[in-house]
Design goal:
The complex is a heterotrimer of chains A (366), B (406) and C (51).
Chain A (H helix, E strand, L loop, with lengths): L5 H13 L2 H4 L9 H25 L5 H43 L6 H18 L1 H28 L17 H15 L7 H4 L8 H27 L1 H6 L3 H7 L2 E2 L3 E2 L2 H30 L6 H18 L3 H11 L4 H28 L1
Antiparallel strand pairs in A: 1-2
Chain B lengths: L1 H17 L11 E12 L3 E9 L18 E8 L2 H11 L3 E3 L5 E5 H5 L3 H9 L8 E5 L3 H4 L10 H10 L8 H9 L6 E9 L19 E12 L2 E7 H10 L6 E8 L5 E20 L2 E17 L8 H29 L7 H8 L1 H8 L3 H4 L4 E12 L7 H9 L1
Parallel strand pairs in B: 1-4, 1-5, 5-6, 6-7, 12-13
Antiparallel strand pairs in B: 1-2, 2-3, 7-8, 8-9, 10-11, 11-12
Helix pairs in contact in B: 8-9, 10-11
Chain C lengths: L9 H6 L3 H23 L10
Classes of the chains: A mainly alpha (366), B alpha/beta (406), C mainly alpha (51).
Protein name (chain B): Spore germination protein YfkR
InterPro entries (chain B): GerAC_N (IPR057336), Spore_GerAC-like (IPR008844), Spore_GerAC-like_C (IPR046953), Spore_GerAC_C_sf (IPR038501)
Keywords (chain B): Germination, Lipoprotein, Membrane, Palmitate, Signal
Chain lengths: 366, 406, 51
């Protein structure tokens, strides 16, 4: 079986959790308090992630998917378990649709989207064949580069003289209402509920005991990262423009203009985002394939790669005819959709309680 | 062996994908727009004029200097909207217009008075456009200004941009303008651009007689156009506009001249160059009366002295400092008065300061009615001036002369 | 009615938001049969991972 080290898990999950949030941002509705909303979501989200890690702790040796039949019994547990790969497949289709909307709007206007996505999925398929060890090594190398590029961007933004920190005050101008609307449930689902897919990677880590700590570090870091970027975007643009921008973080890069010399760094930003989306899609598809493999007791996962990738590609291409509907789905439908909420919050909590109780009575009995 | 063949074939095929992208546009297929001018013509149509750089890909001897004529071409078309006009111009030129190097957008008065939101909309949505092009308004038609030849730089748009960057007068980029348009408690302004003869300093637009001698004209920033929401409502002259810069802490350097009365009824003048200026505005609400306290601290160097005061003694410097403080306060008060009474528009941003400092009261009472409440505010100005240096000589030459005449 | 074939599309998700969960549930039940079927014939070494 493949083994990834603790550091590789850390880098994978940091990039994964920063992921597509950096492209669209979920806190635009909160206006200038968006960074506060992100911080609150981070705290709550880290707790949720911790619950996920504890579940795998209480069921040693089983992947997250197998915990459901094990704890709830085969009759009830198996359908619930099967919901997960379907959900992951849907979410990866959504990320594919994100890319389909981002890249043609910003840097490659003439290229037909299916060409862009075809190449994207080809690379992902190759990655899936190669296994997650390879992905771990890749992220280990790339995360420092990404952080360095980000740091340079921040320095350039400050040097462009466009940052006005008094755009961030008055704090809580319109009250806490806006913030809570954004935090629950969208804030928790967006970056942290999605860490559920990482749960299928955890059993592959070499030091099982440190999974919890690693994930907490990564969640906190990713949350701070997003909060800082949000705050910077508001400081540069002011509240109203931030609320209206389709891609707030991309607009941030467009603002860089140092001595009229260093300008137009858009492409760097898009490449950056593409990589984040790539990793997220990869992890979701990996989780899907692994879940299916476990649930069908197959020997190898390779046979599932092709169909799964095709389905994800098809879903992504046909999902939304334009950006507006796509974002509307995120804002309006997903928070109230029972699938997300139940799979990411309700079922894990139940599973956690059941596993905990069984664990306790198990150790008490032995 | 087979593996290597397959590998080789794969690399070969993919190499073709890396050579270029689908929608590439070569450099000799694009026309770079450096300035755009927008006007409203009679029947609700918008006239878009663009200043395009002439770039010829000539083989052989590189860059035979285009010294005789301008390196730019002007095109214009009318259309129902900005994009419509843009497409029509596109039909006239063999190349693709790209806006990403656009330096300035000039708006004619008629269009400005009827609301410039359509213009800003286009420039906010379209793909290539940067938010850091400067917006300028002009009396009359904007298109005429594009014809003025450049004096220093290769094209006039670059000159105007450098002038704006020198920050002699308050300016606004498209991003700034949109920000102030949408933000509560502050209204937008743009710089006012006119054709002025390069010789004298004149604040009127004198374009008719001197039009043939293009090289003697310069495009100058003579003031500021005051907007309420997105409609132009008036002009403010250069001196008052300068104080706007002070109040917004955007000043780079500036010159103040004060006159002091002499014994023999001869006025002497002192000129000081401001190096640093910092303004803080504090708001206070007392019994339904909104008060603002403006504190401004400036430091400067004295560079011209035509009075008999010796610049060597610190007492004199104190007097001069006081005079300067009074002058600064006077100017700020005058600008605030004008903004309150003549324009009734808060272009300085008092409202947004009140919002930031007392947001409860802002939200309850003033946020919808700031337009009415603004003329009733009370503003107190205190200035502190510090003269740091007096230039390369430390005593007045004139004083010496008078001494010798005795 | 044709909408129900494409429940992941954004317009369907906005009009009938329950279409996708129901599709998932149906698929989950069907696929559980696959699991049950495979578990009978699968080699028993699939139970636990190492560690």
């Amino acid at each position: 079986m493949e083994i990834i080290s603790r550091h590789q898990l850390l880098t994978i999950s940091i990039i994964y959790q920063i992921g597509t949030t950096i492209i669209f941002g979920f806190a635009s509705g909160a206006g200038r308090d968006s960074w506060l909303a992100v911080l609150i979501s981070t705290c709550l989200g880290t707790a949720v992630v911790w619950i996920y890690t504890r579940i795998t702790h209480f069921n040693p040796g089983l992947t997250y998917i197998e915990c459901y039949p094990a704890q709830f019994g085969k009759l009830l547990g198996t359908p619930i378990a099967w919901l997960h790969p379907l959900l992951f497949l849907y979410i990866s289709g959504r990320i594919v649709a994100d890319i389909k909307n981002l890249v043609p709007t910003t840097i490659l206007p003439g290229t037909p989207p299916w060409v862009i996505l075809l190449f994207f999925m080809l690379v992902i398929s190759y990655g899936l064949f190669a296994g997650i060890e390879v992905m771990g090594k890749l992220t280990e190398i790339i995360l420092p580069i990404i952080l360095l590029i980000y740091l340079i961007e921040v320095i350039l933004i400050f040097s462009s003289g466009v940052v006005h920190f008094d755009n961030l005050s008055p704090l809580l101008d319109k009250g806490w209402g806006r913030i809570w609307e954004v935090v629950w449930p969208l804030g928790i689902i967006q970056s942290f509920g999605e860490s559920l897919a990482l749960a299928l990677v955890w059993t592959l880590m070499n030091e099982r005991k440190r999974v919890g700590r690693t994930m907490i570090i990564s969640s906190l870091f990713a949350g701070l990262f997003i909060a800082f970027t949000d705050a910077l975007a508001v400081a540069v643009y002011g509240e109203e423009i931030f609320k209206r921008a389709t891609y707030p973080m991309y607009a941030l890069i467009q603002a860089i203009s140092v001595s009229d010399f260093i300008t137009q760094l858009d492409a760097t930003g898009v490449i950056y985002f593409c990589f984040m989306a790539f990793l997220k899609t990869y992890i979701y598809l990996f989780a899907t394939i692994r879940s299916i493999q476990k649930l069908t007791y197959s020997n190898s996962s390779r046979v599932f790669i092709f169909p799964v990738v095709l389905i994800a590609l098809f879903m992504g291409l046909t999902m939304a005819p334009n950006v507006v509907e796509h974002i509307a789905v995120v804002q309006k439908v997903i928070p109230y959709n029972p699938i997300y909420l139940s799979l990411m919050i309700v079922f894990p909590v139940l599973l956690f309680l059941v596993s905990w109780i069984r664990n306790k009575s198990g150790t008490a009995a032995s | 062996m087979r593996k290597q063949v397959i590998l080789f074939l794969t690399i070969f095929v993919f190499m073709y994908m890396l050579t270029g992208c689908w929608s590439r546009v070569e450099l000799n297929d694009i026309a770079i727009v450096t300035a755009a001018a927008l006007d409203l013509v009679d029947d609700q149509k918008i006239q878009l004029g663009v200043q395009v750089m002439k770039t010829k890909m000539t083989k052989g001897t590189a860059g035979r200097g285009e010294s005789s004529d301008n390196t730019t071409l002007i095109f214009s078309e009318q259309g129902d909207s900005v994009m419509d006009a843009y497409r029509k111009i596109q039909k006239k030129i063999p190349r693709n217009l790209i806006f990403s190097h656009n330096r300035i957008v000039i708006i004619g008065e008629k269009l400005a008075r009827s609301g410039i939101t359509p213009v800003i909309e286009f420039f906010s949505r379209y793909r290539d456009v940067r938010g850091n092009s400067y917006l300028l308004t002009t009396k009359g038609k904007a298109f005429d200004l594009l014809n003025v030849g450049p004096n220093f730089e290769k094209f006039s748009a670059e000159e105007i941009r450098e002038e704006q960057k020198a920050r002699v007068i308050d300016s606004a980029t498209i991003r700034d303008f949109t920000y102030r348009l949408l933000e509560e408690g502050i209204e937008p302004i743009t710089s006012q651009l006119q054709m002025i003869p390069a010789g004298e300093k004149s604040t009127e637009d004198s374009n008719s007689e001197k039009k043939n001698k293009n090289n003697e004209l310069a495009l100058g920033l003579v003031g500021v156009g005051v907007y309420r929401k997105d409609r132009l409502i008036g002009w403010m002259n250069a001196q008052d506009a300068e104080t706007l810069l002070w109040l917004r802490n955007k000043m780079k350097d500036s010159v103040i001249t004060v006159m002091i009365p002499d014994e023999n009824k001869l006025f002497g003048k002192l000129s000081v160059q401001l190096m640093k200026s910092k303004a803080t505005i504090k708001s206070k609400v007392e019994n339904e009366q909104v008060q603002f306290q403006v504190n401004i601290e400036m430091t400067g160097d004295l560079y011209e002295n035509t009075t008999k005061l010796s610049t060597n003694s610190s007492n004199n410097l104190h007097t001069v400092q006081q005079l300067l403080e009074e002058e600064v306060e006077r100017r700020i008060r005058s600008t605030v008065q004008k903004s309150k009474n003549k324009f009734k528009t808060d272009i300085i941003g008092f409202g947004s300061k009140l919002h930031r400092q007392n947001n409860k009261e802002w939200n309850e009472k003033y946020s919808d009615r700031w337009d009415e409440k603004f003329p009733e505010i009370k503003v107190d100005v205190t200035a502190h001036f510090k003269i740091i240096g007096t230039g390369r000589i430390n005593d007045s030459l004139i004083w010496e002369e008078k001494e010798m005449k005795k | 009615m044709r909408d129900y074939i494409w429940p992941w599309q954004s317009n369907v998700m906005m009009k009938h938001p329950w279409a996708l969960p129901i599709l998932f549930l149906i698929l989950a039940v069907i696929l559980s049969f696959v699991t049950w079927f495979r578990s009978k014939h699968a080699p028993q070494g699939q139970g636990q991972e190492q560690q």
